[in-house]
Design goal:
The complex is a heterodimer of chains A (190) and B (71). Chain A has 2 domains: 2-78, Orthogonal Bundle (Rna Polymerase Sigma Factor, Chain: A), CATH 1.10.1740; 83-185, Orthogonal Bundle (Arc Repressor Mutant, subunit A). Chain A has 10 helices and no strands. Chain A is mainly alpha-helical and 190 residues long. By secondary structure, chain B is mainly α. Chain B has a domain at 2-50. In chain B, 73% of the residues lie in helices and 0% in strands. Chain B has helices spanning 7-16, 24-36, 38-66. The longest helix of chain B is centred in the C-terminal third of the chain and has 29 residues, at 38-66. Chain B is elongated. Classes of the chains: A mainly alpha (190), B mainly alpha (71).
Chain lengths: 190, 71
């Protein structure tokens, strides 16, 4: 039926976007590929459930998010917990603070978000900064901020404690903040 | 004790505030600290900007190149 082909074609057209989305999260091209494949298959099977209620991309991303979390769960079971040594060590931030806990350097005013978000270049820089995070840190951070997964669910999936989770998220934010400051805000940017 | 938080402690708590519901005492202490500490107030706004940026990331990066409409 041509209707069916239309739907397949439509699904296929979202593939690059989904791949990109999965890659940002999983950092493994092969796993991302599989995850997107699973998503499209599930979507094909679930065509009748789509029913045009939401934009098709939103619907696909909804399926993809579940597949991504499944993939992360699987990865995390297969790799040992020792993958990120010093996971809850906070001494890496020592240089940012004085001994009495005050900031070593004053924080810069970044201005309104829109001033940065209006520039495509800002997001490229952000991606560059994300790529520098240790894998596990990046995964936790992306699950939290990008997929919007609640912390307790992240803990369950990765089998880590909430405290550990908060440390990883803090680490990610501190690192991204420093990277963005250096590569974007400190420059002659708007 | 909580009213005497250092900037370092505030930065950790502000980050946690994005991931769990803070207690009333914690929120009060943070608010108080932000009012008197410009650096921490800025830091907190930086975290918020970061969160909003991440939510927009995939669309910003792929949208235009592909030109696929979602509607």
């Amino acid at each position: 039926m041509s209707n069916e082909n239309d739907f397949q074609g439509e699904l296929g057209s979202h593939r690059p976007y989904l791949l990109r989305y999965a890659n940002l999260q999983l950092r493994n091209a092969a796993v991302a590929e599989d995850t997107v494949q699973d998503t499209l298959l599930a979507a094909l099977k679930g065509e009748q459930r789509y029913a045009g209620r939401s934009a098709i991309r939103t619907w696909l991303v909804g399926i993809l998010k579940h597949k991504i979390v499944d993939a992360i769960r699987k990865q995390s079971r297969e790799t040992t917990l020792a993958s990120d040594p010093g996971d809850s060590d906070r001494s890496e931030f020592d240089h940012l603070f004085k001994a009495d806990g005050h900031w070593q350097e004053s924080a810069a005013e970044w201005g309104s978000p829109e001033r940065s978000f209006d520039h495509k270049e800002f997001f490229r820089v952000l991606e560059e900064c994300l790529a520098k995070l240790p894998k596990r840190t990046a995964q936790v951070f992306m699950m939290r901020e990008h997929l919007g997964t609640p912390t307790d669910e992240i803990c369950k999936v990765l089998e880590i404690t909430p405290t550990h989770c908060w440390v990883l998220l803090y680490r990610a934010r501190m690192s991204l903040r420093a990277c963005l400051q250096q590569k974007w805000f400190a420059g002659a940017r708007p | 004790m909580i009213g005497m938080m250092s900037c370092r402690e505030v930065s950790e708590l502000a980050s946690q505030g994005l991931d769990r519901k803070l207690g009333a005492g914690e929120r009060f202490a943070l608010g108080l600290h932000f009012r008197i500490c410009r650096n921490c107030a800025r830091f907190n706004r930086q975290l918020e900007l970061l969160r909003r940026a991440l939510q927009r990331l995939p669309d910003e990066v792929t949208g235009p190149r592909e030109g696929v409409q979602s509607t």
